[in-house]
């Protein structure tokens, strides 16, 4: 009995062997493997990714102040590629949060490049560029995006269903935005010639800008806090069934939450 009790206390794996770790499982090796996987995911995000090689070219031609056309073309290509990376990170980050917050992230982070370009254009006094960018974005979302949704949404479907609350809310916000943008134009068209146009128009423009910011803030409160159930499409998304292989392949192509935040910060800095 004493001999058996001694054998019971003998470990199956000696202490000298239990501390041995496989070389492939070392932290530095795992970090390099994860970094390589992140680069692979980003590289396979779009066929435009090989154009990322123009990034150092854009830096050089901009710093040296070479031909203006070359500076414009190289930076435009880089912005197009970086917008793809921003879109990929935004979509992957949306997969780690709720459906409602995902739509907010797509709407906010999806326009980062446009906001940065508009900011620097305003700083340089290029007001026509900013107005053209805003009009192009509005027409693109109102006509192109909406039309594509109708066409592809109605393909092989007799009837489409919509979230009534979300549609009514978005329509109201669009009406308020259009009215706010039209007020300065109507005001300057009906203003008597003897009045100071610049001062009055500037006051109205700043007031409408503040109103639009407040409306957007209240909409975020309405969508994310008070009436979140009207914008939650988790039940509708659950209808889409996927096989285990599809789910595993989809998860392998996703970036982590922290990785998305870091890449978003780096990409935004490069754009600016």
From TrEMBL:
| Residue ranges of coiled coil | none
Q: Which UniProt keywords apply?
A: Ion transport, Membrane, Transmembrane, Transmembrane helix, Transport
Q: Where are the transmembrane segments?
A: 41-63, 69-87, 99-122, 134-152, 173-192, 204-222
Instruction: Spell out the GO cellular component terms annotated for this protein, sorted alphabetically and separated by semicolons.
Output: endomembrane system; fungal-type vacuole membrane
Cell location: Endomembrane system
Q: A biological process (GO) annotation for this entry?
A: intracellular calcium ion homeostasis
Tell me where in this chain the Sodium/calcium exchanger membrane region domain is found: 69-224
Q: Is Nucleotide-binding included in the keywords of this UniProt record? A: no
Q: Does the keyword Magnesium apply?
A: no
Classification via InterPro entries: CaH_exchang, NaCa_Exmemb, NCX_ion-bd_dom_sf
Q: Can you tell which superkingdom this protein's organism belongs to?
A: Eukaryota
In what way does this protein cross or attach to the membrane?
Multi-pass membrane protein
Q: Which family does it belong to?
A: Belongs to the Ca(2+):cation antiporter (CaCA) (TC 2.A.19) family.
Recorded protein name is Sodium/calcium exchanger membrane region domain-containing protein
